[in-house]
Design goal:
The chain is of the alpha/beta class. 30% of the residues lie in helices and 16% in strands. The protein has a domain at 11-155 and 252-324: Alpha-Beta Barrel (TIM Barrel). The protein has helices at residues 44-56, 75-83, 100-109, 124-131, 136-146, 166-178, 202-213, 277-281, 287-299, 321-324; strands spanning 11-15, 61-65, 90-95, 114-118, 153-158, 182-186, 217-218, 229-232, 239-243, 256-259, 264-266, 275-276. Helix 6 links the parallel strand 5 and strand 6 (182-186). Helix 6 (166-178) packs across helix 7 (202-213). The radius of gyration is 19 Å and the shape is globular. 41% of the residues are buried.
């Protein structure tokens, strides 16, 4: 799939639920969150049918997200169903890790290629402050077990805020010293509750990491690296990555789209409006009609975000990240 700006769109993030067992301060309100009724969520069969259409249009990589995807009862069978589709080369999953240990073996048997664990601190007290729950020990135990699965590509996602301490950052980086995983620092985007928080820019983090651990040596991009730029550090088994949508705009290289839990195709994270694929899907439409709609939606993908604008454009996203598919 080639969009109007000649970008090859081959990666889709699919949210399978808007529910989550945590309440991270930049993602979901502690009280008052309203969730979709089950009837509004795409079923397994609908997700797999859409993935079959996406694959025929050139999608190669599917990432399963939420909310928290592991709160969905059928997640293992859904991963297996997507992985078996012709044309899908890679299926990965982003999770907060709390329920990962109980699903890990099943997910690997289903063919899962990679796991991203969202983890903003190694300090249990700070973890409780950020997430609203006392679950650090479960997440760390899952991380230790997951790195034993050699076929899994493991990544840690951290969203550092201005109140994230230098020690928190360097402790997270330390995970890549003894483990074959990537620790990635993601700049906060001003969406939903993210508008209330300031983020730490890549340059500041790079200086801190270099001062603590030594030189960051650029690694060549892989076909699965997406917007992240990766670096090695001498003596480390793993790598360090930066996803810096605010300070290093990468919209011109963007190769991804999103499908929300209620079936809307979002081609840019900033913009609220999206193509309602669920309505098309439930009108007993044939696959060719679905594919034409998807192709049109992808072709119309915007040039990029404008978060640095003094005035946001019309139709700017108002939902929480958990509702969009974080």
């Amino acid at each position: 799939m080639i969009d109007q700006y000649k970008r090859n769109i081959n990666y889709i993030r699919i949210s399978v639920t808007d529910r989550c067992n945590l309440r991270c301060v930049y993602c979901m309100p502690e009280e008052g969150a309203v969730f979709l009724p089950k009837s509004d969520l795409l079923t397994d069969e609908e997700i797999i049918r859409l993935c079959r259409c996406f694959a025929r249009l050139g999608m190669k990589h599917v990432r399963i997200t939420g909310g928290e995807p592991l709160v969905r009862d059928d997640i293992v069978s859904l991963v297996g169903g997507i992985k078996r589709l012709e044309g899908i080369r890679r299926v990965t999953l982003t999770t907060n890790g709390v329920f990962l240990r109980e699903h890990l073996s099943g997910l690997c048997l289903a063919g899962l290629d990679g796991i991203n664990i969202s983890l903003d601190t190694m300090a249990p007290d700070r973890y409780r402050h950020i997430t609203g729950k006392d679950c650090f020990s479960q997440v760390y135990a899952a991380l230790e077990e997951a790195v034993q699965y050699k076929a899994l590509k493991m990544k840690i996602n951290c969203v550092p805020m201005t109140d994230t301490s230098e020690k928190e950052i360097t402790d997270l980086v330390g995970l890549a010293r003894k483990n074959p995983l990537s620790v990635r620092f993601i700049e906060m985007m001003p969406i939903g509750l993210g508008k209330r928080h300031s983020f730490r820019q890549e340059e500041e983090l790079r200086c801190l990491i270099t001062h603590t651990y030594g030189a960051l040596i650029p690694l060549p991009p892989s076909k699965w690296s997406g917007p992240a730029r990766y670096y090695s550090i001498p003596g480390f088994l793993g790598s360090i990555g930066f996803i810096s949508a605010m300070s290093h705009n990468f919209c011109k290289e963007c190769n991804r789209i999103r499908l929300t839990a209620d079936g809307h195709l979002k081609t840019c994270l900033q913009y609220e409006k999206g193509l309602d694929l669920k309505s098309i899907l439930r009108r007993e439409t044939d696959d060719s009609s679905l594919e034409r709609a998807i192709a049109f939606g992808i072709y119309e993908k915007p040039d990029g975000h404008s978060f640095h604008s003094l005035t946001y454009p019309e139709f700017c996203e108002q939902n929480y990240m958990s509702q969009i598919g974080g």
